[in-house]
Design brief:
globular; 296 residues; TM_pro_TauE-like; TSUP/Inactive_protease-like; transmembrane; 73% helix; 11 helices; mainly alpha; Probable membrane transporter protein; 2 strands
Amino acid sequence: MHMHFLNLLIVYFTLFITALFVGIVGNTIGIGGGILLVPFFIFYMHLSPLESSGLSLFTIMLSAMGGSYIFYKDKTIDLNLYLMILLPALFGIIIGSVLSRYILTDQFKWVLSFIIIGIGIFSLIATKKQAAYKNNYSDKYAAPLKNRHRRFLRGHIRKTLKESNGTTYDYEIKSPLSINIFSLIAGFVSGFIGIGIGGITGTFLTAVEQIPPRIAFSTIISIMAIISLIGGLIHFYYIKNPLHMAIYIIPLGAGALTGSKIGAFISKNSKAKILRIYQGTFIILLGVLMLALSAL
């Protein structure tokens, strides 16, 4: 009995530390943390793909909730951008979550590894090719405020967002349709392998759309709080005995919420370009490590 309690305590502590790290990394570089969690569940805890993805999405949801509250207070969430991403990402995560129950563990390891490496490469290439970000955009392409109902179709939505500390961001949302498409893809990948949407959507927003990373990451994290909950519930619906997974939620949730506050603070005080470089490099290294483990 004593040995069983000690083993459970070790598992709880390991889960807490892992979720703490995930919360910090996810809210700092806007990747949600699933890229870390799913490999941990698969390779260390030997859970099934369905269980790993479901637990990961629930942890991302808790982590994102903590970060969202801070970003909401800081007034760094763009409502227009929020709606553009939320609806297609929600549709994608539902489809991906339903299809994830058909993949085997060995196949899942390889698919996850290549997707993670692909996201990392996309992030680094986009960072390298991105033109220097400027705070002045031409009114020639900005949609007039009186045509609010047409802006979502025409693109070039001129935005001015003032953070609670007085920092002002002037930028444009250039292609709402492209954001919709990338959000749909990111949502599908999120539901299928249990990672956040930040690796794909965040990179596209900051590199291609040239939206300030502070605004992009804050908005994405707040969206993940909703869609990860939906995806997690779908995964748990297909798990034969979901109740035995409930014991993992407490340490994962405590670690994720604590880490999210630390990560949000780091994000607030870090330079945009550094955040993007860290994101891409970190993701690629993790993907390579997973490939090596899958080959063993």
